[in-house]
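Sanity check. The docking grid for glutathione depends on where the pocket ends up, so I'm generating a full predicted complex first rather than guessing from homology. Inputs follow.
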Amino acid sequence: MSEYKLYGFGQSGHSYKVALMLELLGVDWTLEKIDFFKGETRSDEYRSNVNEMGEAPVLVADGEKMTQSGVILDYLADKHGKFGGQTAAEKREIWRWILYDNHKVSSQVGGYRFMIGIKKMAENDVTKFLKSKYSDALSVMNKHLDGQDFFVANRPTIADFSLCSYLFFADEFGETFEDYPNIQRWLNNIKALKGWQHPYDLMPKAEL
Ligand SMILES: N[C@@H](CCC(=O)N[C@@H](CS)C(=O)NCC(=O)O)C(=O)O
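Predicted complex below; grid placement will be based on this.
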């Protein structure tokens, strides 16, 4: 039996954060694929037995079910002594970027990509709003990465794995990062890590 079971699906950037971490750690894990677009996370069964918040990812480890990608990443970094902060200040800095990611990057990019890339909607007031929000966040990220290879302590940490997730789906929503050269360089640094794989190579897509 695998050490870890991850509930997720290919299109899920939040699940990718955890799948990527497991892969970079080189641990044994299996995927419990969620039928997301058929409403599995919204079912009573899922909410009662898997995650009351009705979200992916969920990690089952050490007899415990964990949710919220940031919390799961933090648990894995602590447990394996890799990709975490080495001092209290570094740990705080990592959390600062994970929280920023959840609020300003993944939520906005994820929403935009869902509407444009998955639902194939035409641009509208909502997509324009989301794009303006995520563009601002990308500018913040691009500036922070000036002269830095990674977000915290200039080495790969779970902050990077959280922030990068939806950006690896950029071709689905037409983002080239032309205006964000530091982000392009940083994404290549992540791709160069031993064990890196694209989201769809780690988890099959859920049917639309
Ligand atoms: N803050 C959460 C966000 C998780 C999340 O929103 N996951 C999406 C899939 S990528 C989801 O399950 N959404 C359920 C819904 O919107 O009904 C995390 O980081 O784990």
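Relevant for the grid: The chain has a mean pLDDT of 98.
Also worth noting: The first strand starts at residue 4 and ends at 8.
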